[in-house]
Amino acid sequence: MTTNGGSEPVIRRTPVFCTIVPPHILDHLATHEDRALADSALRTLQHDSAQRTRRRVTAVRTAAAVTAPAPATAQPRRTIYDAGHRTDLPGTEVRQEGSEPGQDATVNRAYAGLGATFDLYLKAYERDSIDGNGLALNASVHYDVNYDNAFWNGDQMVFGDGDGEIFVDFTTSVDVIGHELTHGVTQYTANLEYYGQSGALNESVSDVFGSLIKQYSLGQSAEHADWLIGEGLLAPGVHGVALRSMKAPGTAYDDPRLGKDPQPATMQHYVKTSRDNGGVHINSGIPNHAFYLLATTLGGNAWERAGQIWYDVLTGGELQSDATFTDFAKLTVAAAKARYQAGEESEAALKAWAQVGVQAS
Fold it and tell me: d(Cα 152, Cα 167) in Å, to the nearest integer?
């Protein structure tokens, strides 16, 4: 941490490059005998790899940024750009905040998804945009040709159109938009390192709030939510329902072209690997499942008590950038006790983590 010449710290953050489709899926696709599918996957992998090399794998550790509660009248500042199937960002501006929907459904979905994310953070947690200080929300659609991914690059959202055979338009799922933008929230708060367990927590936090954004926008309770991440992204004919399942990790897809969902639900099946920054997209299934268990045990709207506990940990300033699952679990129990005293929330959190094999006491 440095200072600006006075006593106030200057918070330095090095954002990581985060995509919604994990490398293990694209790796499997890249070996397919259908050259068109394999080429699209390989092109996406090469692009994503090049983007990652431009950033440090780990984030710069700083204190969490302190922000005041947002006024209820806070409004988003959205701008959507059309990349025109190129990779030069941001592209041509096609919709601004407050303008009417146009003919391009992809543009309209991106605009609505940014708004849904802003609404959840504002109305549930009094947070004014991604950084807590009214950050403008920018997104580029129609990125590259047959690009099978969506990502947050540290400054803006980017959406590919998919290849049409395995993946469809990446603006289709609002939880995907919420997931990627939540990487920005993490960037401005706990700044979790994108490797190993802290990286899996980074991915899991994005899945949690991505799902909550979807539930909030649809008015779904924990009981009625599908707890899927990327539902609707898989093209017709693909054997699967989504990219990940928080309710049942390891069951989201089983397709000859994609392989089988490798996510574990408990520490018993924790995957040790050097790929994907130490399996950040795989082992995130464990904290994902813990959140699902907590939210469904508490019932009602998951963004309220369960989501509030997770948000308190993410923004509380005690979560270290290299946190393990155990570190995070213990902080959720402490946060539950701090906010709800000796109620059912802390006991439910303890039980949820115990069910996935993480010690939280």
Answer: 18
Q: Which helix (H) or strand (E) holds 82?
A: strand 78-82
Exposure string (b/e) for 330-348, b if CB count within 10 Å is 16 or more? bbbbbbbbeebeeeebbeb
Give SS3 for 198.
Answer: helix
* CB-count burial class (<10 Å; 0-12, 13-18, 19+) for 28: middle
Nearest CA-CA partner of 300 in 245, 354, 222: 222
Q: Which of 161, 148, 156 is nearest to 181 (CA)?
A: 156
Q: Which residues are catalytic?
A: 180, 281
| Position 49 pLDDT exceeds 80 | no
Task: For residues 25 and 12, give the distance between their C-alpha atoms in angstroms, rounded to a whole number.
Answer: 33
Given CA atoms 320, 325, 331, 332 in this order, what sign does their dihedral have?
A: positive
Query: In sequence order, which residues have a C-beta less than 8 Å from that of residue 341 and are 6 or more positions away?
Result: none
What's the residue count for the chain?
361
Specify the pLDDT at position 8. 41
Q: Positive or negative, the Cα torsion across 324, 321, 229, 310? A: positive
| Highest-pLDDT range among 24-28, 37-41, 160-164 | 160-164
Bridge partners for 137 per DSSP: 78
**Whether residue 11 has pLDDT greater than 50:** no
Q: Which alpha helices (H) appear in 54-172, and where do they start and end?
A: 105-125
pTM summary value:
0.91
State the pLDDT at residue 16: 65
- What is the three-class DSSP state of 80? strand
Instruction: Output the six-digit token pair for 321.
Output: 């950038």
Residue bearing the bigger pLDDT, 39 or 232: 232
d(CA 322, CA 331): 14
The CB density around residue 30, as the number of other CB atoms within 10 Å, is 18
